Amino acid sequence: MVRVETCYFCSGPVYPGHGSQFVRNDSKVFRFCRSKCQKNFVKKRNPRKTAWTKSFRKARGKEMAVDTTFDFEKRRNRPVKYDRELMGTTLRAMQRVGEIRARREEMFFERRMKDASKVKVSQARAELKESIELLVPAAADKEKVLLNVVEAAKLRASAKKTAAEKKKGGAAAAAGGDMSD
What is the pLDDT of residues 58-95, one digit of tens each? Predict the structure, then answer.
């Protein structure tokens, strides 16, 4: 049966016919998804200290490390007699587990980012306090622009009022002229 292996270094998927494998003298097999992972392994680099690996992200709390849905990914070597009904229920269960994992990862990300937003706001406030002198001229210019906009709006409003009064006065004069005849 065709099996999707995991890369020993980055924990990424290794599809059949892809990647390479290294067999040590004690017959331990190491599978790698690409030469980048194999070269890092040969250089004896620690995957937990290499920033682009999954083990680094899990060690730093960027991704979920402990969850019951990970138990379904464990490798099982026991052969099972084929049963169509069993396969159908297994596929439905796999989809359901995928949905649950996606929802849990989303909640984990939201919880992790909630604290980050507070930190961002505090950093922005500190930066604003440090460099307020840069914003003062811009704010003064903005106030001038706002005053000009307000004055222009007032002029337009007064022009509309005078135009409306002229129309009313002209209509009243025309109406008054018709009555005097």
Answer: 888 777 766 666 666 666 777 778 888 888 988 898 89
Cβ neighbors of 47 (< 8 A, separation 6 or more) are 9, 10, 11, 40, 53, 55, 56
- Give me 164's structure tokens: 């409306």
pLDDT tens digits along 12-45: 999 999 999 999 999 999 999 999 999 999 999 9
d(CA 161, CA 147): 21
Model's pTM, two decimal places? 0.44
Give dist(CA 181, CA 175) in Å, integer.
11
Give the dihedral sign, CA 20/24/30/34: negative
